[in-house]
Each structure stands twice: as C-alpha cells, then as structure tokens.
Design goal:
Elements: H1 5-14, E1 42-46, E2 49-52, E3 68-73, H2 76-79, H3 88-98, H4 109-121, E4 127-131, H5 134-149, E5 153-157, H6 166-169, E6 186-189, H7 194-200, E7 205-210, H8 219-232, E8 236-240, H9 252-257, E9 263-266, E10 277-281, H10 283-286, H11 300-316, H12 318-340, E11 344-347, E12 354-357, H13 362-375, E13 378-379, H14 393-415
Parallel strand pairs: 3-13, 5-6, 5-7, 7-8, 8-9
Antiparallel strand pairs: 1-2, 2-3, 4-10, 9-10, 11-12
Length: about 425
C-alpha cells in the first residue's frame, strides 16, 4: 500500500501560507483525490509521467532529488499539456527566447508572427489579442461584444464554464464576494433547449457565448442551430474554445463542426504549460480589443511556447494521436467495466472522455476509484481524462491494467453494505468551481 507521507508533510506546511495549498481550486488537495489516500503534490514531470513531491522545503529543493513515482498522468496540466511535460521543442523554443528577453519595452515581432499563424489555423480569427488565462480571455470576449453592440446581456448555457470572474461566477448558486447586480448582465438557459434560447434572445443581448461540450450527443446540430438563431436576432455568436482548441481540433469546435463564430477564446494547449490565452475574431469586432490591456499580454516565453506548439502540431499529427489514445483508453476501460458489471463508463469524445457513474453516491464512487487508481500508479482529473500525444502504448497498457485492478476493487466495495469503509482517506471535496 502506497504511503503519502511526503505529500502530507508538504501539504501541512503549504496550506499555512497559501489557500488550499494550490493556486487552482480544481487541482487542490482534497479535490483531485481523497486526502490521506492520494498524492497531494508533484515534484517533477516528464512526458506522460509525474513524480510525487519530495522534500521541497530543503535548501536544495530545486536540484534533481528523488521523488516518489512515477504515476501515469492523465491530468496533464489540467488539460493544457497535450504534447507531454517538457516536450523538447517547447523547452528549446523557450530557452532560445529567454536569451533574447522576456518582456520588452516595445512590442516584439513575435507577437505579430504568432498572431499571423493563429489567424491561419483558426477559422474565425482575423485578429488576435493575447492574455494569460482562460478566465481573462472570456472576460475580454464579453467586453468586446458589449462595446461592439452597445448591449449588456450575455447569454450562456448551464453546460458551459467560463472561469472565475464575477460576470460568470454570479450564475452559480453560491458566489461569495460577487454582488448580485452582476446577474443583470448574464442570462442562463438550459443547454440543448432551443425554445429557451429563442426566448432569451431579446434586444438587450450582445452575444450568445457557449463552451462546446464535445462529449454531448448531437452537439454539432445544437451549436449550428444556436448560431443560426443568434444571427437571426442580430446577436453575436461566441465560442469558448479553451478546452476544445488543440484537443478536439487545433482550431477547436469551430473547425471540427464547421461553425462560424464572431468571437472565440482559446488557451490551455496553446501554451503547453506556460500561461497563454487569447481572444480572436472578426476584424471589425477586434478593433474593440484595445479595451483589453495588460502588462503581460506580450510576455515572450509563452509566445515562444505557442510558436513551437503550432509547428509541432503542423508536423506530427498531434490531434489524430490524441484521439487515438483516447479511443484506446475508452475501449479498454469500458470493456473491463462491462465485464465486471461496475456502474461506470467513459463517455463522450475520445479527445476528453468523461467518467460517468450510475450510482446513488457518485462522490463516494469517484473518491474510492481515485484512491484505487493512485494505488496502482495512475492519476487523472476527478471527472475527465485528458489524453495527450505523449501517452505511449506502454503507458496506455499500464493504465488499463491499473484501471482493471481499481474496477475489481470497486466490485468488492460496492458489494458491501458499507462501501465507505474501504475509503482510506476523506471523500473528494465539493467546492465552488473556480479557474481552471
């Protein structure tokens, strides 16, 4: 049985100086896996593997000290690292730029060059504004839409996620720190309900803004219908492609599904672990992007990483590899779950399969399952798997072996009158969803 004493020691110290011992809620200790039965911190990563934190507080903690692991990593930088950790082309590009400067006093040609390449590969992109986080880019998109139309309301669906900023956070049942008046600027409709969408498209709406949920059946038809509805009501159509971009397709759902958004936001995969996001769209709209301004928009290490990422994608069939890896994972996992009669399946698109339980206590099931996966050397997001081009045949085979062992353990747990007795730590915590 694995011991997580190093993680626990790190966690006890880290939580004294930073909330939840993490800068991102969705990967904070107790959210990814059960406290006490799951690695809590990572010390290093390479390819599709990650090693647990070890003695980070030592004076020489930056040195290549031993760390516990490796684990096969299906979390992959919270969906951002599609080429694998420390991809040599990304590292080389960043090192080259580091020798030239990180943040120059005047705009760098690299800003325009990367923007040109993005305009070539993203269907809707005629102009690009760089930012650092996905949440910033969605804030930028709604600001541009409001400025361009002179209207205030943004329509979203209840299946979308657009970050931690106040305009979106107010739509959640719990939104401490967010004044209620923000609710006047956003209207939420049930995903897939076209009648509700039609009713929401009044003359005060600036934009319909949707995160393409590519794991949902018939998503293509729904998105196309919403696009038609928006145009028919003289409303902008926007896509939040933060997750879909570089994973479903390089240009996101608009490329995969043949859509024509007015504005779109991207991030995650385009930085390969460095802070990189952007808003893009039609030239006439993007003139209003001058309202979006930040010191670090032109930071050059992230742009160098994006440049290298675009080159690797162009040369190496990355999207096809991600989809192949995801399909192998889904087929192997679901075959085992079916044979063992465990009430769980990986569903949706192979570029990002979702774990779906059909059980009365989903939280307990997922907590137990994360515990058993980690025990066998695999870590993943608590609701989704993030295949990467770095997942080798060996890593996939090891993952499916681990999944089989974890599912066999779940058979025993769920056959018990008290499945909770098998949980060696605390249940995965429910929390307000915050920035990815």
């Amino acid at each position: 049985m694995r011991s997580y004493e190093h993680s626990q020691a790190w966690y006890e110290r880290a939580k004294q100086v930073t909330p939840n011992a993490s800068q991102t809620n969705s990967k904070s200790p107790g959210r990814v896996g059960p406290l006490g039965a799951y690695p809590l911190g990572a010390g290093r990563a390479k390819g599709c593997y990650v090693w647990e934190v070890d003695k980070w507080w030592d004076q020489d903690w930056c040195a290549a000290t031993p760390a516990h692991g490796p684990y096969v990593d299906w979390y992959c930088g919270n969906c951002a690292v599609t080429l694998g950790h420390q991809h040599e082309r990304i590292v080389e590009s960043v090192k080259d730029q580091l020798s030239l400067g990180i943040l120059l006093p005047l705009p760098s040609p690299l800003e325009a060059k990367v923007a040109e390449w993005l305009c070539q590969v993203i269907p809707c992109a005629e102009s690009v504004r760089f930012l650092k986080t996905g949440s910033e880019s969605t804030e930028a998109a709604i600001r541009i839409a409001r400025a361009a139309t002179g209207r205030d309301v943004i329509v979203i669906t209840d299946a979308s996620y657009h970050g931690w900023h106040s305009w979106y956070a107010v739509t959640k049942d719990r939104h401490p720190g967010v004044p209620e008046f923000y609710a006047e600027g956003v209207r939420v409709v049930p995903h897939g309900d076209q009648m509700a969408m039609m009713d929401a498209l009044r003359d005060d709406v600036a934009m319909v803004f949707i995160e393409p949920q590519f794991h949902r059946p018939h998503e293509t038809d729904y998105l196309r219908d919403v696009q038609v509805l928006a145009r028919g009501h003289d409303v902008l159509f926007g896509l939040d492609e933060i997750v879909a971009g570089g994973r479903l397709a390089l240009g996101g759902a608009q490329e995969a599904y043949g859509l024509d958004p007015d504005l779109a936001t991207f991030g995650k995969s385009f930085g390969q672990g460095l802070p990189m996001a952007f808003v893009c769209g039609r030239q006439a709209l993007m003139q209003h992007a001058t309202l979006v301004s930040g010191t670090f928009g032109g930071e050059l290490l992230s742009l160098a990483a994006c440049r290298a990422m675009l080159r690797v994608y162009a040369e190496n069939g990355v999207i096809a590899r991600i989809h192949t890896v995801g399909q192998m994972l889904m087929d192997g996992f679901n075959g085992t779950a079916t044979r063992l009669n465990v009430p769980v399946r990986l569903t949706g698109h192979p570029s990002r399969p979702w774990t779906v339980w059909t059980h009365d206590d989903i939280n307990l099931c997922q907590s137990l399952f994360q515990q058993e996966l980690a025990e066998r050397g695999v870590i993943t997001h608590y609701t989704a798997w993030n295949p990467s081009a770095a997942h080798t045949a060996e890593a996939i085979a090891d993952t499916l072996t681990a999944a089989r062992g974890a599912l066999e353990a779940m058979v025993v747990c769920l056959a018990s009158d008290n499945p909770a007795q098998f949980l060696r730590g605390e249940r995965i915590a429910d929390s307000i969803r915050a920035s990815s």
